[in-house]
Amino acid sequence: MFVNMVNANCRGKLPLNVVLLAVLGSCLVPGCGPGSPVPSTPPTRMGVQKPEGAPDVQEYTAWRPFFMTDVGDVSGSDMIGTGFAFQLSEESKPVFVTALHLFGTGGGLEADIRPTELHDSIESTFLSDVFGATDGVKQIGAPYEPCDQAAEQKVTETDVVAFDLVGRFKPAMLELSEQSVQPGQRLWMVTAVFAGASPSQKCHALKVTDVEDGIIRYRFDNERLSLKATDGAPLLFDSGEVAGMHQGGSTDEKGVFGHGITSDVLRQAIESMCLEQEADRQE
After folding, report:
1. b/e string for 12-37 if b means 16 or more Cβ within 10 A?
2. 221: helix, coil or strand?
3. Which positions carry the signal peptide feature in this UniProt record (predicted)?
């Protein structure tokens, strides 16, 4: 069952060392685990890199999720993904989204958590800014679950998980685009990478090779780009609107390739979740 690990009076921002000692009991920064030395902070805020033609990306747009579950935990030494926040409309609740497969054996847990088990299995979820704009971590609310069996299948197929945003934590909100993604189009994956580019570079160019049934396939311009902890990152048009969500990739003799879902599929996945029902359960 979801547990609020942070008092409401201090949920907005917690120093990293407080969370380490009082909440997770393990390190939330790369390369740090139990018994290992605390690494020095990388100079991610120096000389922010913006490729030509890339959209302007606000601070607090992309986040690393860490979580505690009844089948294992993911801490800072196990950075596995990225996520972002948006609203379906001005009237709807803001949500934080990432890839569902992170909450399973693919993310280092002992078992896969089914969409209908999310609320009871995930005890707490925290976020840290991927670009180091803040040295604190933010606790977010409970995960949303599908409303019925058909919705569960939709959520599973689309590989999306969404969380309630609570308290004073206000991440930058991206806007879902209604524009269709086309083969040959340039998009941008937004996150910090571990190798192949500057850690301060927010946008990484890619070219769409195929779009079918809401699945986007693409190749990155940078043939040396590391995709570690990029699953769940937003894919943006040049305009800065969300074209979709990156969900995985690998390398071959031609370079680095990836796949994800379109913003339309992402919207449908969120619409299949019981947002209002979850709000009533938390009251």
Report:
1. eebebeebbeebbebbbbbebeeeee
2. coil
3. 1-31
Distance of alpha carbon 144 from alpha carbon 164, whole angstroms: 7
Domain 186-266 indexed as CATH 3.30.1360.120:
no
The 3-state DSSP class for residue 189 equals strand
C-alpha dist (Å) from residue 52 to 195, 204, 206, 214, 231: 20, 11, 13, 28, 24
What is the SS3 assignment for 250? strand
Query: Are 66 and 221 a contacting pair, CB within 8 Å?
Result: no
Residue pair 268/162 in contact by the 8 Å Cβ criterion: no
CATH architecture type of domain 13-34+57-174: Beta Barrel (2.40)
- What would you measure as the largest C-alpha separation in the chain, in angstroms? 53
DSSP E strands, 35-175: 63-69, 72-74, 84-86, 95-99, 122-129, 136-140, 160-164, 173-174
Spacing of C-alpha 254 from chain mean position: 27
Q: pLDDT, tens digit, for every residue of 138-185? A: 999 999 999 998 899 999 999 999 999 977 788 999 999 999 999 999
Evaluate whether 215 touches 235 at the Cβ level (below 8 Å). no
Distance CA 76, CA 65 (A): 9
Q: Give start-end residues of each CATH 2.40.10.10 domain in the chain.
A: 186-266
- The reported pTM is 0.83
Rg of the chain on CA atoms, in Å: 18
CA dist 56 and 54 (Å) reads 7
pLDDT at 92: 87
- In angstroms, the Cα distances linking 10 to 5, 13, 258, 275 are 11, 6, 39, 25
CB 206 within 8 A of CB 57: no
